[in-house]
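B., you asked whether I could sanity-check this one before it goes into the benchmark set. Here's the sequence:
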Amino acid sequence: MGLQTQTALALPRGAGRPIDADSLDALRRIVGAEHVLTTDGDVEPYSRDATPLFSARPGAVVLPASTGEVSAILRLATERGIPVTPRGAGSNLAAATIPEHGGVVLVLTRMSAIREISPDELLAVVEPGVTTAELADSCAAQGLLYAPDPGSRTVSTVAGNVAMCAGGLRGLKYGVTRNYVLGLEVVLATGEVIRTGGRLWKDVAGYDLTRLLTGSEGTLAVITEVTVALLPMPAVARTGVAYFDTLADAGRAVAAVIHDGIVPATLEFLDNRCINAVEDFAKIGLDRQAGALLLFGDDGTAEAVERSITLMAATCERIGARGVTMARDVAESEALLYARRCSLPALARLAPVTLLEDATVPRPRLAEMVDRIDAICARHDVVVATFGHAGDGNLHPTIVFDPADGDVRHRAEAAFSDVFDAAIELGGTITGEHGVGAAKRPYLQRRLGADQMALLRRLKLAFDPAGILNPGKLGS
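And here's what the prediction gave me:
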């Protein structure tokens, strides 16, 4: 007998309707009139995020400056049944910050202070609106590494990374955002402020609410402070690139590298369509004829890096690489890393709409999954390019199209539905790092099953009894 529960939380009363004048006045008293936006021109940028084809107008955009203001806003929202969608920079790729049911978009970018960087404790304490790059650069200035490295690092906020459990190029060696969150200050939907975790690397008192809130996509609480773990900055970093005739060959090289006992800091791939789009965009001398590009790199001591880079290059050559190029200096390394980071903007030049998704499969099935993606997209007559994190099996199939082309949007959506089915069939998942949001919600039960979905809803109800926080996301 499966677990029994209500099928869904009721949406807040008034969901989708304008916020009444009295509630708007109350919000203005909390944060100041200049920080409550209601006109079409002011709220329009907050009706969408980095996810194409999704938008919804909020009733108001509210920008608090303190935890106390966030607490007061959420108490008011719970009392009056006003939906609240927490938001950082809006750089997510899952439509997780789209206010599907109107209400308030709660923008946390005014809370942007780095409160502390502690070399002795190897940690930093930041407000939610600090960008990933700001934190990483501030830590680097003190000889410390903040390891999470999402592609949107220059604009994405640290709390947004925590809310989505962002990944990035260093995921294989260093892990993802959740591996570096030591503690959180959060405000519950009813206004209570709680602290989970803290400054300790070891702390198993009670349930691990820090881990539960990491990746919860604003559905359980609003993050107002983050304590993250840091590492000593590696002394040396080097990068190389290997070209292969097929992605299957690149996949075999990845397997061989891991079999050799190397866990590289970087192990990324681009297919041929990505290679050509990036070369058109960045003009850095990539091999346009290659079927696949494998970007590999490592960091650490000079001796260890030299050994691992040399071994990875030799392994690629042994597997049958068309060619292997080693970056001669930091500038060339940065150029190669830029080739990977600019994949999305490069592909965006090919057509008016770019749909970037992510799915993850076990590493040995990476090449098989890419072949499945190509076959699926050919069957649905859509143009796809695939790049991603070869080291951890996380792929980013990207469909580009012109919406003027008849029913192409529906063909693209049907293709991605088949892609997610294929990932699950191969032992994988519908998202490795982008999150669920509104974009992946139709596929979530396929991945988790009905009983686990029921448990998620009960957890949601415990944290947010009125159902105001990001309603409709994660199947809630």
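One thing to flag: Residues 302-319 form the longest helix (18 residues). Otherwise nothing jumped out at me.
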